[in-house]
Each structure stands twice: as structure tokens, then as C-alpha cells.
Specification:
Layout lengths: L6 H18 L18 H4 L7 H18 L42 H5 L1 E2 L2 E2 L9 H14 L1 H4 L8 H4 L12 H5 L2 H10 L13 H17 L20 E3 L8 E2 L10
Antiparallel strand pairs: 1-2, 3-4
The structure holds heme C.
């Protein structure tokens, strides 16, 4: 708090000004005041010359007000605020930093679409994507998967990632087992969000939309290992066996691909 005006302080200053006045009038010290050379009997002439004449009184009032205002001054370097995270005995928990009011929702964080954030319908995982899967979504999912999941689950999702091969306590299951092939999409979202057994959760590293993109990509990985000709849309060809080369090429020269007969649809 800044110093405030107090009666003591005022009277101290007042006393000081009294004594300095005495210093200015040394002639009168110890002797009687010289007589008024023009004495008058008119009482009105004496009015206003007492201890508190009208003029003196108003000066004193102004002086008092100014003094009081000076006491109220608040410098910028001494602001009435808490330093961040400072202790305060104003609150019972002694914290000056107050927690947000219960139920506060930060801008952009109103999670109205609960499926997008939990992958659950009621208590069970749902089996649909909360937004349409486009090529961009799959590409994003592949990129995030290769960053966050492949180190353990491997790029093809068979569980032979480099981390388990270097001593991670548990080898992840392959995504291509019957149980996980049949698992609903929301289940994968939940595993990424909350972790599973010895697998940690990735909720802080991967934001919900990216988690769903990964889920779509995992499903694509599963399809890639479990597709039949019936899954291929009509008119599209399934990639055939790798090309055979007439000449392999030296590195400086390009390989020459063997001319094959037209590809037959696998049965
Ligand atoms: C640090 C290694 C590690 C990383 C990284 C990792 N996982 Fe796992 N994951 C595991 C292990 C280990 C298990 C088996 C856990 C167990 O059974 O206790 C597992 C299990 C799973 C399962 C199967 C759950 C079941 O029901 O059996 C899924 C699905 C899965 N992980 C998805 C993911 C996805 C998606 C990512 C990337 C966001 C990911 N994991 C990242 C180690 C990892």
C-alpha cells in the first residue's frame, strides 16, 4: 500500500511551518510585539486577523486537500496487483492465481460432438468416421501413423516395429489378426486416446482429427493385407507381380522391362 495521509503526519508538517515562521520573525522573539502605530477602534478592521481568518482558512483547506491527494498517489511501478503465482492471504487457499470458474469452456473447445472426441456411442465404440475420408485424410493419417505408431507397430502394422525389437517389454499385436480386423473404428480411436495395456496414450501428442485420420489409415492397412478381387471396384486392375527385366541396368543405364502378355485378373 502507498502511504496515506494521517493526522500525525499533518501536524508534524504543520509544526515545522510554525517554527520556520518564528525564524522569519526574530525581532519579536523574547520581547513584546511592537505596538500598532495606527490603532483603531473599528472592530471590523480586526475581523479576519484572528487565528483563522477567511483567507488563511481557505489556504489551509487547499493545503490539506493537496496534501491528502499527494498521499493518494499511486506509482506505476507499485501497482495494486499480484505478481504471477504469488502467494496471497486474501484467499483461503493462499493462491493469488484463481482457477477458472467451474464449467468454463475455452474458445474453440466446446466439445459438442462427443463422438469426435471419444469414438464412443454411449459406452460402446462406434464404427463410423465422424467426417468423410478423403485422399488427403488418408495421406495425413499415413504421415501421422508413420511418426507415432510405426516405431512400435511397424509401417505395415504387423507389430514388428523397431522399439519392440530393442527391448520394449511387450510386442504389439499385428493389426491383421481376426480380432482387430473386426474391431470397430471407434475402438482404435479409443486405444490412441487412452492407451492400452503397456501402450501409452497419445492424446496429448495427436489431436482428435489426426487420431481419426490414423484410424482411417490403420483400416486401409488392414484392407491392404486382406483384400480379395471382389473388393476391387470394377474396371480397376489389381497390381500384378513385380515387373521382370530383360536387362537390369547398371545404375548409369535404365533397366529394360520385359514385354509381358496382358495381365489376367486373379481368380
Ligand atoms: C511405444 C510403442 C507403441 C506405440 C508408439 C504405439 N503402440 Fe499400439 N501397442 C503397443 C503395445 C506394446 C501394444 C500391446 C499392449 C498390450 O497388450 O498390453 C499395443 C496395442 C495396440 C493396439 C491393439 C489393442 C488390442 O486390443 O489388442 C492398437 C489398435 C494399437 N496399439 C494402436 C496404436 C496406434 C494407432 C498407435 C499410434 C498412434 C500406436 N498403437 C502406438 C505399443 C505401441
Amino acid at each position: 500500500m502507498s502511504p496515506t495521509f494521517s493526522a500525525d503526519r499533518f501536524s508534524a508538517i504543520f509544526r515545522k511551518s510554525e517554527s520556520s515562521r518564528a525564524r522569519l520573525e526574530p525581532r519579536w522573539r523574547g520581547e513584546s510585539k511592537p505596538k500598532d502605530p495606527y490603532p483603531t477602534t473599528d472592530s471590523s478592521a480586526h475581523r479576519g486577523k484572528g487565528l483563522c481568518g477567511l483567507k488563511a482558512c481557505s489556504t489551509l483547506a487547499w493545503f490539506t486537500i493537496l496534501l491528502a491527494l499527494a498521499g493518494c498517489r499511486q506509482d506505476m511501478h507499485d501497482q495494486p496487483r499480484f505478481k504471477p503465482l504469488a502467494e496471497s492471504d486474501f484467499y483461503s487457499d493462499l493462491r493469488s492465481a484463481r482457477p477458472p470458474v467451474e464449467g468454463t469452456v475455452a474458445r474453440g473447445q466446446l466439445r459438442e460432438d462427443s463422438y469426435l472426441y471419444t469414438g464412443k456411442m454411449g459406452n460402446n465404440p462406434g464404427d463410423y468416421m465422424p467426417f468423410p475420408v478423403t485422399t488427403e485424410v488418408l495421406a495425413r493419417g499415413q504421415q501421422r501413423y508413420d511418426i507415432y505408431c510405426a516405431p512400435c507397430h511397424s509401417r505395415v502394422g504387423d507389430g514388428n516395429g523397431v522399439i519392440p525389437s530393442r527391448g520394449f517389454p511387450r510386442k504389439p499385436p499385428s493389426y491383421h489378426i481376426e480380432r482387430l480386423r473386426k474391431a470397430p473404428l471407434g475402438y482404435f480411436f479409443d486405444v490412441i486416446t487412452n492407451g492400452f495395456g503397456s501402450m501409452p496414450d497419445y492424446s496429448s501428442q495427436i489431436e482428435p482429427r489426426d487420431r481419426w485420420a490414423i484410424v482411417a489409415y490403420v483400416r486401409a492397412l488392414q484392407l491392404s493385407q486382406d483384400a480379395t478381387a471382389a473388393d476391387v471396384p470394377a474396371g480397376q486392375k489389381v497390381p500384378s507381380e513385380p515387373p521382370r527385366f530383360e536387362e537390369l541396368g547398371s545404375g548409369a543405364t535404365l533397366p529394360v522391362v520385359e514385354n509381358k502378355p496382358a495381365h489376367e485378373e486373379p481368380k
